Amino acid sequence: xxxxxxxxxxxxxxxLIEMGTMCEEAIASAAKAMSTRDLELAxxxxxxxSAIDQMERDIESRCIKLLLHQQPVARDLRQISAALKMITDxxxxxxxxxxxxxxxxxxxxxxxxxxxxxxxxxxxxxxxxMDSVEAFVSKDVPLAEAVIEYDDVxxxxxxxxxxxxxxxITNGYVDGELALDYxxxxxxxxxxxxxxxxxxxxxxxxxxxxHKQA
Length: 214
What we know:
single chain, mainly alpha, Methane Monooxygenase Hydroxylase, Chain G, domain 1
């Protein structure tokens, strides 16, 4: 019975890793579409979002079955409850990657040339998501803690971008609607960073039993 339960836990881990990888790819594609103004790539991000949603439902179903039909010990309960929390954040990351891609499509090639900061922010956010997934895979508590600390970097990027956009609008260097679209993109990246932080916190909980919120 325990061997079967361990096999199902291993499958749960594999599914979580697969979902995390899908989220990484969605953000990277949305960021690339933004940088290159590739509308076709942006549209693919939206069409792939349903796959992440399906993964969330599949993993949630597996977790519930493990809880109902097996007899998990405390460590197992931590792992399963952390998985349920993590998939919610992963699904939201997928949604926000879609939101960024939708704005890219709406912009239809228009860009704020002065906004190289947003590309740097995108790279920082992708790093957070990749590291949070890696921390889960390797059960690496120090890496998860580093992800939580790195959220300050992403938040700082958002502050800089917001101030830059306000300055551009104030001085009439950019169309207000276009600038606000870019501010929304930055906000979505900032939220993705928050979700990566949440994932890292649940990784720590699954390993140590302690849930430390940033």
